[in-house]
Design brief:
5-stranded parallel sheet, 231 residues, globular, 9 helices
Chain lengths: 231, 231, 231, 231, 231, 231, 231, 231
Amino acid sequence: MKKIKEVNCDLNRNSRCGFPEFIYGEGKTFEQIKLAICEIRKNNDPVLVTRLDRNVGKKIKKLFPDGIYDEYSRVFFIKSKKARNNPGKITIVTGGTTDLPVAYEAKYTLELCGFSPTLLPDSGVAGIHRLLENTEILQNSDIIIAVAGMEGALPSVIGGLTASPVIAVPTNVGYGSSLGGLTAMFAMLNSCANGITVVNINNGFGAACAAIRMLNRYLSNRLSKSPLLPK
Amino acid sequence: MKKIKEVNCDLNRNSRCGFPEFIYGEGKTFEQIKLAICEIRKNNDPVLVTRLDRNVGKKIKKLFPDGIYDEYSRVFFIKSKKARNNPGKITIVTGGTTDLPVAYEAKYTLELCGFSPTLLPDSGVAGIHRLLENTEILQNSDIIIAVAGMEGALPSVIGGLTASPVIAVPTNVGYGSSLGGLTAMFAMLNSCANGITVVNINNGFGAACAAIRMLNRYLSNRLSKSPLLPK
Amino acid sequence: MKKIKEVNCDLNRNSRCGFPEFIYGEGKTFEQIKLAICEIRKNNDPVLVTRLDRNVGKKIKKLFPDGIYDEYSRVFFIKSKKARNNPGKITIVTGGTTDLPVAYEAKYTLELCGFSPTLLPDSGVAGIHRLLENTEILQNSDIIIAVAGMEGALPSVIGGLTASPVIAVPTNVGYGSSLGGLTAMFAMLNSCANGITVVNINNGFGAACAAIRMLNRYLSNRLSKSPLLPK
Amino acid sequence: MKKIKEVNCDLNRNSRCGFPEFIYGEGKTFEQIKLAICEIRKNNDPVLVTRLDRNVGKKIKKLFPDGIYDEYSRVFFIKSKKARNNPGKITIVTGGTTDLPVAYEAKYTLELCGFSPTLLPDSGVAGIHRLLENTEILQNSDIIIAVAGMEGALPSVIGGLTASPVIAVPTNVGYGSSLGGLTAMFAMLNSCANGITVVNINNGFGAACAAIRMLNRYLSNRLSKSPLLPK
Amino acid sequence: MKKIKEVNCDLNRNSRCGFPEFIYGEGKTFEQIKLAICEIRKNNDPVLVTRLDRNVGKKIKKLFPDGIYDEYSRVFFIKSKKARNNPGKITIVTGGTTDLPVAYEAKYTLELCGFSPTLLPDSGVAGIHRLLENTEILQNSDIIIAVAGMEGALPSVIGGLTASPVIAVPTNVGYGSSLGGLTAMFAMLNSCANGITVVNINNGFGAACAAIRMLNRYLSNRLSKSPLLPK
Amino acid sequence: MKKIKEVNCDLNRNSRCGFPEFIYGEGKTFEQIKLAICEIRKNNDPVLVTRLDRNVGKKIKKLFPDGIYDEYSRVFFIKSKKARNNPGKITIVTGGTTDLPVAYEAKYTLELCGFSPTLLPDSGVAGIHRLLENTEILQNSDIIIAVAGMEGALPSVIGGLTASPVIAVPTNVGYGSSLGGLTAMFAMLNSCANGITVVNINNGFGAACAAIRMLNRYLSNRLSKSPLLPK
Amino acid sequence: MKKIKEVNCDLNRNSRCGFPEFIYGEGKTFEQIKLAICEIRKNNDPVLVTRLDRNVGKKIKKLFPDGIYDEYSRVFFIKSKKARNNPGKITIVTGGTTDLPVAYEAKYTLELCGFSPTLLPDSGVAGIHRLLENTEILQNSDIIIAVAGMEGALPSVIGGLTASPVIAVPTNVGYGSSLGGLTAMFAMLNSCANGITVVNINNGFGAACAAIRMLNRYLSNRLSKSPLLPK
Amino acid sequence: MKKIKEVNCDLNRNSRCGFPEFIYGEGKTFEQIKLAICEIRKNNDPVLVTRLDRNVGKKIKKLFPDGIYDEYSRVFFIKSKKARNNPGKITIVTGGTTDLPVAYEAKYTLELCGFSPTLLPDSGVAGIHRLLENTEILQNSDIIIAVAGMEGALPSVIGGLTASPVIAVPTNVGYGSSLGGLTAMFAMLNSCANGITVVNINNGFGAACAAIRMLNRYLSNRLSKSPLLPK
């Protein structure tokens, strides 16, 4: 059988969308991921592979030793040499310690694109003082990424405390009727705090991309349309 | 066709369960409800019909003019003459104004059984100060009934603020992915605050009965096993 | 029975969140809505009631003749006299004509808060040229609100064409396995275009509030922290 | 990368809620659990880790040899030296033998807080005599925790036999349309016995906490507000 | 447009299945039902129309005055003149009064086929004595049809009390998480009592047909293969 | 407010897709439908409005008296004068009489595009002889559209009898666990007969369009790429 | 900790229900199953353990070498010495080969209780001739157990061919939208063939018990109430 | 126990349906698959086993060394010697690289039946130019098989670009609210592009069979009814 080119990277996504094509790792073979990384590197874009399981991850790390593989959040990334530090205060809050892998996925994505987010872990609403004592940090954030599983109440309380954009990330933390994170996701979509937006379950990466879209728009205006990401 | 006796009231429920048989009004004909009320009155129990729609409700009110029919909460009730005032601080909190019919269903049930609950409406988590300024009332309550729709976050925050028993009542307030109240219900069942218990969607009546079970137990111990409800 | 104050408006929400308390109309009685409007007007905030059905809507319009009631989108609003025109290019795109009530809900909310969104109706992906011929408008938008029912593919295509923030609003347009809009909502949450965020089904209002959060942040920075909304 | 403090224990929960922060073990790393246990012990609170899988459980047990790890119910706990014996008759009933791990989770939680529950296993409604012959025990209980999977009918029958508070715990015992315990949970939420409250699937721990909230309230009243749990 | 013959009755179903083609009334026009009844009468079979709404039902009754239309259970039927009385003790039990329309649908179907079922209404498990005092009737039944909504526990208890075949009929009695009867249906399918079989929600008719299949088999053996139904 | 052009017809769809833009009637206002019809007529395309409810339908019929409005299937259509008769044997089979509105929707769509389908109503699998006696018609069909609700078994049996393409249309005929047609739809998607394809619930229109796509391809090849539909 | 007796066998179930307590193996420990088998054997009842996984199954077989463990259907059983051969023609039909483990579970259960079922495997509706050529066997069966996954159409076709009782057993054979067998189960519950009853997914055991209930009733009448199962 | 013949191949399916009985591999034992292959080979039909897991697949390959086992798509096949090359342009498009196993299942099925499909991988709508640059290939295809997971938007865009039949294959690529492919499947069933048909999740095989049904019909007409597949 003739060999089919199985990977077809979207190499001008950076100029269109403000971030390059990142690689969805789950279900891809080692060969497919290797091929995609090579294409992206040729383009001088930073490399990010999400949801990359241990077995393939370790082999990829061995092949690209300048990259970092974090098994806990299943992320592999290679920073671009031209990366710069962007302004923009992004705060990532988690309901519990168990939500951290998702928060790290967001954090690595943002850092790869030149942002320096602050992480406030374990601030769930069952001990609301932990959240309230950070009210000022929250109100001074340009964007808040709120990561929570179980009943997903965190973004509602944050949304009521601040005027900042809040991106809610449901996680699959919980069991039984948490329905693999659907309960948190549905709760966030029905927040009584107005103007909360939501991404898929465990999608820390998507929340980071949404934040980059917002900050890109903001920065590109202030900075005379200069591109946000390293070229 | 021979006439079947369609209603078979459980007339000794009061002595077994601490409250008499109440009547589930939805889907019952006027004749069936009338028959059930008559049996219960013969037994000298207080009468409560829940989920009773307007058409039948008005006819029942006309037939039993000493009863009260509240169309807003769809409740019909006739107080027993031997009702007494029971101790016990019960607080009913609602997330929004729209949750009130469910809160009233709980309130009427409790009042019929001799309790005097306090109602704190419109205290949702998007304006958390409204809840926090009532912290003392909540902490002094023997039982808190927390009624909320949408994302159902209210009981989680209350549960973290107090040591009191919290009975969570999800409501069908919301739309789309609120799933007719399932989202609030699932959220409450997955509360990160420990020890929250939950009843069916819109089941203010059930929450009241659960509160009565708890207070009955408490009172019967202190009051030498005397029955709570009027006989 | 003593009269309970059923409405407890969160009158400092404007200073905390950048928009005042708006009123969720569904399931509220005429009296409750009237009371809420009066409180908000006393506070000199603009008035917005969403999901307000015809019967109550007409009575509210009669009582507050300076307001506008749009039966098609079920929105009632009264502009504040101090409203000003805010900068910010917001584009609202709909998949089909049938999605328009939701788009109008977003449009009215934005206009009430001083923004002037552009509306591009009937641009679904089954005639992709209709979308592609507006690529420049989309790429020049500060925020895009993409409203679609059925398979909800619109935000994915837009997200791939632009670097702007995209807020996806699923609608209940469709039947059978559209599951009242859940299919569009799930599809949007699983968009292969990165960084799309999603609000509840038919929640044009929520999308507008999310846009206001983003633009508020942007404007408050550029405009030396001056508040966005009229006080 | 700077090390983030990933665990942020809520160390005054005992005074607020009547029980200390317990640790949700699922999805936490060995390091995170170790850190949390250390913080709680410094506070002199009893330690409870739920849903702790075998691999991590065994390492934790090795590190804290004064604790007990029960692999069957996935619970690890360390009793506080100041534990005392509280009054209060709590009965835990299970539908089948297979529901026992959940019942043990409840039992260990209660014992850690100084209560001495009675366990009646394998009393499902298909052999109703097994339940009826324990009617007196049930009626004399201050609280009944009813644990059942499959069709979840147990709490309905118990609720009809007694005036005591009944906390229903659905389990995931069953297969196919038992839907991982959702069927039992939905059934319990729709009990025709009034005043049954429900916790999440397999949440024996939560049922125990709810029981503690009730008994705490009762005891603190009778015992002049003295705190229930050891300090 | 040429007229299509829209109804194509299966007129030899009686000889194949032991009961004739009955008519599913929901969604059929008056003309279609009229046509179907005429065909069945020409065949000298008894007529049964289920789920027939008021408007069409009244017109059908006017056209076929020898038939009976019961609006409560939405059943229309015309007895065959050759009907005979079959042996076989069938007991129909209902959980509550509100389940009666479904029980009547079963009862009419059985009576039309020559059986004389006994109806025990309002025997739900929350007052288990009401069921236990009928234990002997249940044990002497050739078939038990157990009709219940809400948590659907009735068949489990009956199945544990008797050796008779139990056909469980879930009803849509309940609200919220009763999910329109799905909760009762799932519960019955997961009964811990062995050998319970289940039909669709509200399908009293189907339960009756299942009973007829069983009794037909029994009778045809004893009565030398003579057909059960009138020809 | 400036008037927005709410309808944006895709007037070259006929040349791209082989059929013109048809109008989805549900949820559109009278004005929107009128505007869409006018645009399509200017283009000399045939007009089809599906899912058009009685009130609007009657007004549209009055405005366009050369069109036909069939209330039973909720279809309005105006034939193009240049319509021609296309070859191609299409057979529409329904499980029951109650599935007919969906079958008619398919039939009208096909006829509008110049095809002459055969309709075999009321051929459900409970009387399998009714299907088997039409085996030859089925095997000689170029395309079979199988319309069924309830358990949706019809396409599986047809698919096993023939080599022709089978398009399965689930309907919402049924109640309870038919889940508004989802059960039939899921069943058809899981057919043990290979190569069955499925459209949305009640989507007779979509099945007809799929048939047109197939026949167009076939005809355009044989007929030297001449367009199928009238221009 | 004091040892709790974790198993509480219902040893008079045979006299009440016509079959002894059988053991649900899933989720039970080796010790629990061993204990239950010992109790049942002391009672001289036949032993049946269902859903018993390989690891425990092999240890149980070693302990009770007179029993048979079938890994394919996960059944362990020990025949009673007093077993007798009961009359009654039971036919078990499966849609495909992959449904066989469920069919064997039914077969072993029936054989243990003295029946001799006939098994017709791989008779799915996609090759309907395979079913039709067995029409006579089906029509002569006292009970038919129809086992099928995927779209679950088998019982509908069988139900239309025969007057015998049909017990439908959905299996989890299939993938994707077969939803682990829910699709087959829902389809069977919505059968257009009247009088089909359904058990839980993969519940061959339950279907066998239902068959025993029916045949017991029949036999006990004919055989002067003598008990069916060996004592 | 007497040995039952567990496999009952439908050996004349080729003449009835245009393709032979293929083997569903999942859940079958090695012995069952071996037996089925032997029967099919005796009939001189080509052999295809789908969803065949690694362990059994390797043993089958060893036994039938002239076959090919592709572990990636879980397909085993043995070409028939009489295979011929059929005309017909079939294009298989995938949204992403991760959808490839499903695309290969379709490709192998088509090739086994003598077709030569073209595969266009990784053409998702987030980089719509990748699809648009293949517009001509798509418009010249006799059939398009569109394979996509996540939001499943691909077939909608393709359906709007072409007049060809489009068979949509949802895949389980995605996580969280992709619901194992249900989201993509529901989206495809609700496509705003008319005339898209859908098969089960991951059912590349079924899509290929549907394509064969269509092409068979076309070819048999043009080629005087000569059978498509090798005999």
